[in-house]
Amino acid sequence: MNLSISKMISEDEIQTRVKALGEELTAKFKGKDLLAICVLKGSIVFYSDLIREIDTDLSCDFLGVSSYHGKTQSSGEVKLTLDLNTPIDGRHVLIVEDIVDTGLTMAYLQKSLLARSPASLSTVTLLHKPDAKKVECEIDYIGFEIPNDFVVGYGLDYQGLYRNLPYIGQVSNLN
Ligand code: 5GP
Q: Which CATH architecture has domain 9-66+79-148?
């Protein structure tokens, strides 16, 4: 595919920020059992880097959600495509997201997981587009705030591609 992609956040900047987020999360969860939830598929790269920077007892689980259906605009409808393997009641839970755009997905995840009575529910996202917000949702940790542009790389795709770019790139020639 021939997209025109310009670098927005370099590999080094991402790694530095991920380390800092890991330190903050370690400070918060040290001495506790943490269940870190990877929101598939976009968070896979951020998640695998971030969990290695969190120094406490940590288990992993995975949730699948879809809201974009391969397009660049959110359909406004969030669907659970894969549920967790583990019950979360009484556990300290951290939702790890790649990007918060309209906030619909994060709001949906917070509501669904809070209904399962975790001991605590925290949220971290690598990227946040404050200008795209449609619904209120609280995010505890944010890697980078970015403009309302479509981005790919470091786990984020366009039609299934570009997840393997080591940096975040802005796409300039989408229809
Ligand atoms: P929201 O529900 O906040 O509108 O969107 C969340 C989901 O939309 C993200 O988890 C991600 O999959 C997708 N998304 C939002 N903005 C972008 C973007 O700029 N690039 C890519 N590749 N996906 C995005």
A: 3-Layer(aba) Sandwich (3.40)
